Amino acid sequence: MADSPLRPSSLINTVYGAFARRLGGWISVADLITLMSELDVDGPAARSAISRLKKKGVLEPERRGATGYRLSPAAHPVFDEGDRRIFGSLEPAKLSDGWAMAVFSVPESERSYRYQLRTRLTWLGFGNIAPGVWLAPGRLLGDARDMLVRRGLSEYVHLFAADYAAFSDLPGTVSSWWDFPAIQDQYATFTDAYGPVAAGLAQQPETDGAEAFRHYVPMLTQWRRLPYLDPGLPSELLPPDWNAVAARQMFQQLHEVLATPSLRHVQQVTGLEETA
């Protein structure tokens, strides 16, 4: 497990996103607390995190012979979007894909929406090119549209599918729109934490399910932030020492080795079966 602390609520999100959705979307409280204990989260901390996720509308209580929680209907599209970003965007975008541009203007009387827009666009991977003007690779256009509608922010924004035409050294300019050093620091933190794990697993002929689970959930929890911080810019626009490539390869290696035995372990703990 990584040394950096991960919030119990983030770990629970990963458990639901990676496993519960495949097992009917519901886990009993008792089984969830058992799984969290394997991640060094004690019962009170797990219950507190469950309560916070309930208040946020991520989890809903449901009794199925035992007290438990299922993912709320509102949470499903958020997790679906996460799947696309985490597992579907491992390769950089292409320049020929074009750009998604968001332009917004928010009245001063509603400036809280301005903050929400900046936060959400940054989280999606948009870079700020001028006041109220944000840019991302074109493949993020659909996710941006869905997010703006879901958050009730669409009335403040104009979304464009754009092409770059002229008048700038684009690689040099792009580096001022995104914080490349901060992104690379996050990738370095990931590879430093999980490089030894990957090396150790490579020496094992088979991975035990409980051990796989203890590695996989924190690993995926730490990784799933990165595809949002990194918009996946075309390789032509990135520094030559861009460390995302090695980090993605490590993530893919760990995912391929750990995901299946982790799921089997969750099934053994919960007694749940995969749904179609």
From TrEMBL:
InterPro entries: PaaX-like_central, PaaX-like_N, PaaX_C, PaaX_trns_reg, WH-like_DNA-bd_sf
Identification of the protein by name: PaaX family transcriptional regulator
GO biological process: DNA-templated transcription
Domain Transcriptional repressor PaaX-like C-terminal as annotated: residue spans: 178-267
PANTHER family named in the record: PHENYLACETIC ACID REGULATOR-RELATED TRANSCRIPTIONAL REPRESSOR, TRANSCRIPTIONAL REPRESSOR PAAX
Domain Transcriptional repressor PaaX-like N-terminal: 7-73
Domain Transcriptional repressor PaaX-like central Cas2-like, residue spans: 94-169
Domain of life, per lineage: Bacteria
